[in-house]
Amino acid sequence: xxxxxxxxxxxxxxxxxxxxxxxxxxxxxxxGVSRRTLQFYDDEGLxxxxxxxxxxxxxxxxxxxxxxxxLVYREMGLDLKEIKHMLSGSEKEKAQFLNQKMENxxxxxxxxxxxxEFMTCVQKHGMPPVPSEESAEEKTYVExxxxxxxxxxxxxxxxxx
Length: 161
Hints:
Layout: H1 2-7, E1 8-13, E2 16-23, H2 24-31, H3 35-43, E3 50-51, E4 57-59, H4 61-75, H5 80-88, H6 91-125, H7 133-138, H8 141-160
Antiparallel strand pairs: 1-2, 2-4, 3-4
Helix pairs in contact: 4-5
């Protein structure tokens, strides 16, 4: 009980009670991230911590809300630079950024689906033959493979119609 009281400090500033402050260990347990991660976020300016008179990092409810946002953005696959941008941006900027990010992900999904279709075709029909030397003069091997992918995609589109 005493250690919990030590971890949650109630600081008085000019006679007013400030929100309960939590130390790194308590926030680490609450959030499910390491102490080092919290320190890193502080060092990078993502999650600035206040300091106690003994130089302990302290986090209030606002910091916990910020940490929540950081963790949600990390789960979305954003890197720290993008998260910093999101934390400082307006709601409109955040929406625009996320829309652009989702468009990029959609393009990646389409590309990966094309790769899977090509793999399935090679698996089903076997390795395509090596182009003859005469045709290799007109196109490189890479260009032949690209053409095979396009033919495969066209055949699939024709089947769907």
